[in-house]
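Researcher: We plan to redesign the surface later, but first we want a full-length starting point. Tokens attached.
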């Protein structure tokens, strides 16, 4: 039997990767904006060691978030964690596609190079790559500029 709704009980784990190159945030359950803000606050001291984050959302339900919530969360990301330069989102395929696409777009527009992945290994590899800040911004904003008005 497949259970369609996820528990409101949210779990959050925040730690520095073994190589110290990125922060790993793993959340599960039905997310609300306050859950994401709390994870950001918990991770803030770790940004003294790095400027990237891997957010593992494979076990979350984003249906508790509106597009306005996503816009606000993305806009506040640089205020909440100003040292964050790169973010890898890991989510299940087919789950919350419109939310992930919107979140990636808005985060890029706000200056955080953000990519969506379906598995941990490619996300971890991308975060470990060395890129100049200009290359990240160009790659991030390139597809957005191609969207017709």
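Model: Full-length starting sequence:
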């Amino acid at each position: 039997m497949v259970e369609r709704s996820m528990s409101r009980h949210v779990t959050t784990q925040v730690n520095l990767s073994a190589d110290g190159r990125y922060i790993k945030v793993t959340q599960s359950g039905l997310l609300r904006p306050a859950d994401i803000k709390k994870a950001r606050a918990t991770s803030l001291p770790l940004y003294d060691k790095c400027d990237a984050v891997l957010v593992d959302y494979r076990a979350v339900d984003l249906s508790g978030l509106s597009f306005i919530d996503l816009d606000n969360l993305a806009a506040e990301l640089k205020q909440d964690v100003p040292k964050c330069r790169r973010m890898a989102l890991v989510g299940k395929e087919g789950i919350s596609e419109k939310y992930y696409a919107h979140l990636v777009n808005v985060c890029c527009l706000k200056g955080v190079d953000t990519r969506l992945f379906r598995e941990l290994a490619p996300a971890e590899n991308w975060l470990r790559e060395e890129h100049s800040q200009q290359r990240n911004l160009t790659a991030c904003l390139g597809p957005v500029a191609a969207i017709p008005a």
